[in-house]
Each structure stands twice: as C-alpha cells, then as structure tokens.
Amino acid sequence: MGRPLKRVLLTNDDGVRAPGLEVLERIANTLAEEVWIVAPERDQSGTAHSITLHEPIRVHQLGARRYAVEGTPSDAVIMACKQLMHDRLPDLVLSGVNRGANVADSVAYSGTLGAATTALIMGVPAIALSQSFTSGDDVHWETATHYGPEVIQALLDLPDRDHVCFSINFPPVPADQVTGVRPALQGRGSIRGVDLEERTDTRGLTYYWFRFRHDYRDLKQPGTDVDVLRQGAVAVSPLRLERDHTAIWDALSRRLERIHEGR
Predict the structure, then answer these.
(1) What angle do CA 18, 127, 90 make, to 5 degrees?
(2) Chain centre to alpha carbon of residue 111
(3) Which of 5, 155, 160, 201 could form a disulfide with 32 if both were Cys (CB 3.0 to 4.6 A apart)?
(4) Helix (H), strand (E) at residue 37
(5) What is the pTM of this model?
(6) What φ, ψ does residue 253 adopt, rounded to 5°?
(7) 217: which residues sit within 8 A by CB, 6+ positions away?
(8) Mapping DSSP to helix (H, G, I), strand (E, B) and coil, where does residue 33 land?
(9) 117/185 Cα distance (integer angstroms)
(10) What is the spatial distance between Cα 163 and Cα 12, in angstroms, rounded to a whole number?
C-alpha cells in the first residue's frame, strides 16, 4: 500500500449518524493520518449535486474534526473546503459508504456521487463508496470494510485521474464470496417510472411523497455496474461532472448547419 495520506474528508448523504459513515471512518483510518467528518445532519438521499441557496447554512460541531451540516452533501463539502478546512484542503474526499448501490440511472440523483463531484469542483480528488444489499436486514458492511482500503489506494495510484471521480460499488455478498474487482461502465434503463402518493395531514391539508420505481432485471449489458455487481464483484466506475454525448455529434453538427444555411 502507498504512502499514507495526510488529511482526508469524509461525508455522505445518509446523514452524520449513519452506520455507513462509521464504516467509512474505519476505512479512512487505515489510509490517512488525519480524518475529518463533515456530513449532513439528516438523510439527504436523492439530492444529487444540489446546494442550498435560499436558506442559511448552519454547522454543529460534534467532536474533534467532526461536524454536522444542516444542508446537502454538496453543502457539506463546500463548507469543509471553504471554512472548516480552508487552511489546508484535504488530500482526498471520501463519500459514503452509502446504504445501497449507486448504479445505472440512480447515479444522476445520488447525493453520495453529488458530494464527490462537488469535491472535484473544489479541486480535491474524490471517491464515492456504496454497499449494495438485497435485504434491509442483511447489509454486508464487512465487504466494504475489507476491500475499501486497497481499492481506494489503487485508484489514488492511477495516472491522469484529474477531473474524474470514482464510484465504488461493493456487491451484496460477504467479503469471502467476492469474485473480483472490475472496472464498470454506468448502466442505464433502471428507472421505470416515478410514483406519486397523495396523503392528508392532521390538519386536513394535502401533501405528497415521490418515489422512483426501479427494475434491474433487464439490465444485462456486459461490463456495466449492474452486471459486475450481479456477478458478485466490486464495480469501479470512473465518472465525470461533464455529461457530453459525442455519439450524435456529427448528426447534430449537420442538422445545426442546415439551420444557418437556410437563412
């Protein structure tokens, strides 16, 4: 394993008291001399890259180098880099360990990934970690604990990793049943719709709950994050903040040129 990191920032989207953050702290303590935790006060799942613009940000110190932020995961990263750790930025931001996989379409909505990409904007390398599971009572946190340090170190040793954050998804199996560690493309097509549930509160006022409807059964493209996890392997995906789609570039250029030529 390479040289220990000096200073690492931990955050998540499940909240500062989430069990996955405890797992991440154990992982980070094997890698870094100094570990900071700056995480949302409450569960912020589904907030993606959002930042708070219309309300003040409040921060509560919970202990030495441990803070709770009343805001989103991206708020937490910005607060850490611009205020709490501004004297010396972290060498690395680790976001997670999320309870549940962040794969396929859900990557776009993930607060775990949002924190990591916000770190890139702040000029700090970042890695997101997620532990998939098949039953709410059977989360194999030990798999992330076992494989996390070595996978993270391998990613830090990669050349040309600027402007890229990595998403690590651990399979829903015990550590001794993991079949490998593999690169994975982001899958697509898991979101089959959005459900809206209408309810009435105690004052007779209407409110609503949103919920994505996912289905991964038909996602069988080899080499995608869903496929790698299905094989019991750790899936490692390099992601960017940019969302260019160059496959249609030539057709797009020709179509736009005709607009100008017709004037």
Answers:
(1) 90
(2) 6
(3) 5
(4) strand 32-40
(5) 0.92
(6) -60, -45
(7) none
(8) strand
(9) 17
(10) 20
Question: Which residue from 222, 200, 123 is spatially nearest to 163, judged by alpha carbons?
Answer: 123
> Which residue from 101, 156, 99, 100 is spatially nearest to 124, judged by alpha carbons?
156
For residue 137 the two structure tokens come to 């009572």
Domains for the chain: give ranges and CATH numbers.
5-187+220-261 (3.40.1210.10)
* Structure-token pair, residue 236: 């490692």
